[in-house]
Amino acid sequence: MTWKGDARTGQERSNMKVMDHSSMPVHERCVVLLDQYPWSIGTRIGLGFITAYVLRQLCDNGQQVWYVIGSFLAILFLLRLGPAMVRRLVPFSKEAHLTWWERRQLAKRFDSYQWQKLFWMGIGMAGYAMLGRNVGNAIGVLVALCLLGGGLGALLWVRRNERTRA
């Protein structure tokens, strides 16, 4: 299966099955598409928006830097643990499991693939802040770090893909 941003080499692509999501039940296809371009962008922006709200509620309006950073890391951990638990507990087709397995392998192989996700979460958190919410300095710093680190990851990811396609 290939998707925009696929950094696998031609040999790696030829060794992997090409997935046709149309054979999946509609509910599975929707879940799988949440993490596929372009829908993954909206998903991560929404997660960033929700994250900023949660951090503001948990962290005294986002004023305590280490508490905000610790809470953010805990949220990132839960965003990794939650889907893993759902994959174990809810029955999904082999096609869905294979798709998720391929994405996890890609994420393990390329750090820039993971870092770019922070960029979109940073956009969502910035959107929450721009709506006039009092998010505090610590959340503002976190937004800047997500945008800078995630933007750098996205840039490296795009450059890697250009080299792979050439």
Element-by-element helix/strand order: HHHHHHH
Shape, principal axes of CA atoms: globular
Strand residue content: under 5%
Largest sheet: none
Q: Compute the number of strand runs.
A: 0
**Rg from Cα:** 17 Å
**Helix proportion range:** over 70%
Poorly predicted residue ranges: 1-18
Q: What's the domain count?
A: 1
Please state the structural category.
Answer: mainly alpha
- The termini sit apart by 19 Å
Structural summary, described in words:
Helix content is about 75%, strand content about 0%. Residues about 1-20 have low confidence and may be disordered. Helix 3 crosses helix 6 and helix 6 crosses helix 7. The radius of gyration is 17 Å and the shape is globular. With about 170 residues, the protein is an all-alpha fold. It has one domain (about 20-165).
Explain briefly what this protein structure is.
This protein has helices at 10-15, 26-33, 39-58, 65-89, 94-109, 111-130, 136-165. It is mainly α and 166 residues long.
Provide key terms for this protein.
single chain, 166 residues, mainly alpha, globular
Blueprint (SSEs and pairs):
Elements: H1 10-15, H2 26-33, H3 39-58, H4 65-89, H5 94-109, H6 111-130, H7 136-165
Helix pairs in contact: 3-6, 4-7, 5-6, 6-7
